[in-house]
Amino acid sequence: MTPKEMARTHALAFSETRAWTETEFADLLAGEFVHAIGSVDCFAVFQVIGDEAELLTIATDPAQRRRGLARACMNNWQTEAFRRGARRGLLDVAADNSAAIALYAGCGYVPCGLRKAYYQRADGKKVNAILMERPLP
């Protein structure tokens, strides 16, 4: 999976927000601590620093949704992060993204904080980010 493919899937998945560009994916993946797992249909980008892993993004092509790909990708990135030494998983999610919140809760994540007005929508509206965590594996 190339940064170009990742940017395409991300743009499809995040059509209502600013999707990440090919250059942003390439720059992230050049980092020592950042990893990607999945396919062009569904992928996750995460970083492992010490005993913590943070999900940076997960994206599923809308044409491939409701097939269990995101849940499988969640399991896979967490397993890989644990293999790399992480013992705690972290992520943030827009408070208005009920589908993602349900996915993360179903994967064992619980809220642990809030970032007010963290995400900005295309219409200028600002949305809180819910911070979530869980022990790994």
From TrEMBL:
Superkingdom of origin organism: Bacteria
CDD domains: NAT_SF
Start and end residues of each N-acetyltransferase domain: 1-137
GO molecular function, one term: acyltransferase activity, transferring groups other than amino-acyl groups
Cross-referenced SUPFAM superfamilies: Acyl-CoA N-acyltransferases (Nat)
PROSITE patterns associated with the record: GNAT
PANTHER family according to UniProt: AMINOALKYLPHOSPHONATE N-ACETYLTRANSFERASE-RELATED, AMINOALKYLPHOSPHONATE N-ACETYLTRANSFERASE-RELATED-RELATED
Protein name per UniProt: Ribosomal-protein-alanine N-acetyltransferase
